[in-house]
Specification:
With 215 residues, the protein is mainly alpha-helical. The chain has one domain: Phosphate transport system protein phou homolog 2, domain 2 (Methane Monooxygenase Hydroxylase, Chain G, domain 1), CATH 1.20.58. The protein is built from six helices and no strands. Helix 3 packs antiparallel against helix 6, helix 4 runs antiparallel to helix 5 and helix 4 runs parallel beside helix 6.
Amino acid sequence: MLGRNKVKQIVADLDQFIDKMDECVLIYKNGIRNYLEGNKDAFNGNIQAITAIRDNTTDMRRGIENSLYTYALITENRIDILQLLEHMDMIVGQLYKNLVQYEIEIPFFPSELNIEFLKLVELVSLSVEIVAQAIRDHFRSPQQLTEKIHTIYFYEKEVEKLAQAIKRKVFHEMENFKLSQKIHLRYFTLHVEQIAEEAVKAADLLSVLAVKQRY
């Protein structure tokens, strides 16, 4: 009875972690929009909110890991759950670190880049949202997993193409910008790309787990 209750609690904790990941990406997306549009108070609120989520998910991850090891639960799937949890934690961590860097470094974005950069952020956010859905599917309806995995790969490729276009525009067309300013913009564009890359790593793991479930 104790074991069954603990398993249910771990599943509930994982579900709550996914909820937090969903919330985190929404705050991240809104935070960058508020930064680019000069909404300082709203942006500061986004920083506070994403910091609270990061602190929360760090505690949640430790709690789930503790339960898995302390009670020796779900032995056959424990490594898989820990690996998924690691990728979820990495995604939340990157969303948090990326947004906080805007507050620390105060990058200057020319207005002509705003639309493309916000589209880049939107694509990355969609990839994370699909990862969250795919992880839920892994536990609830694995038959829907393949389509979502392919969608994550699609968004990652779109992110890469748009990021390259933005960097090319910065270095080839913005003649009035100093090299240091161009590098700064490239740096922040690269950080967005890294979130999509982490989403793909989660998709790769889910793909492997889907094969393991079939055999």
